[in-house]
Amino acid sequence: MDQPPTRTPGSIEGDGQGAKLSFMGHILMENRNALIVETELTQASGTAERDAALAMIDRHSPAAKRITLGGDKGFDVTDFVGELRERNVTPHIAVDAHLTKTGKTRKTAIDGRTTRHPGYVISQRIRKRIEESFGYIKTVAVLRKTRHRGTARVGFMFTLAAAAYNLVRIPKLLAAIPR
User: Fold this and answer.
1) Measured between alpha carbons, how far is 13 from 126 in angstroms, rounded to an integer?
2) Cβ-count burial 142-158 (b if 16+ within 10 Å, e if not)
3) CB–CB of 28/8 below 8 Å?
4) pLDDT by residue (tens digit) across 11-58?
5) How far apart are alpha carbons 156 and 9 in whole angstroms?
6) In the chain, what are the domain boundaries?
7) Class of domain 23-160
8) What is the DSSP string of 98-121?
9) Looking at the whole model, is its pTM more than 0.90?
């Protein structure tokens, strides 16, 4: 008797193909020096990026100090922006105001309180630096295809690769300091 194929949580299956584990690596970067200050690895899901961002903010920053969080259009969700504001975090998130299929402009969660400040424009320009760290981790640290299995092991390798990126970045920062 044939058994239906079983799905592993976080796996992606296609017709006639085996399951592929899918992980998402998340990085919290400070903008001034583009150093990675927090990492997290999660199983791929529709809300994994936003959930990981909130968890990393909770672990990293004290609630009393106001910080900003830069992000792409995928973070422009009313619930997420509300949770950031509850945590005393200013959301410097790219506005997702595309036209819907019905021809209406999508309602954005980012309002004029945020976008009118010059710091918002600077954050939007600097947030692209995070792609450099992902590029390093995928190519130099060879994590495009991991050799390990399991969230704990892959997460350790992801954090180790992020630390290596910081070690490569620090001498460049020191060389830029005027003496």
Assistant:
1) 36
2) ebeebeeeebeebbebb
3) no
4) 455 566 665 668 889 999 888 888 999 999 998 888 888 999 999 998
5) 20
6) 23-160
7) alpha beta
8) -B-TTSPBPPPS--HHHHTSHHHH
9) no
